[in-house]
Model the fold of this input.
Amino acid sequence: METITPSIQFFAGLFEDLSNVSLRREVRTGKRIVLMIFNQLQALQGLNSFTKPSLNSLLLTDEEGEINVTPSSTRFIFGGDEGDELMRVECKFEIEQDDHWERFMRFMHRYAEANGMEYGER
Done:
């Protein structure tokens, strides 16, 4: 297999830097919930989102291939003195199938290793 640097894209060719990720399991249903947090988005810099085709999903790419995720919600959190400064973007989605969860976790381990992130529990 070819070694490919793991990447995350909302828009074709615009690689985003993941700031944090939270992995949860809903007690009632057992669904796994992923919350990806981005402190900034390349897609918003210089109106890039208007010049690149939208993927209509989140594209996660690594040496195993591509994972297309359709977020259940995307929240833009603003703050600052005027309340107009983008503080972070939260992208949430659910994973129900065990094999999809295992594939996602392999991607996350590769992404974390390539970007100096480490796993920690709260």
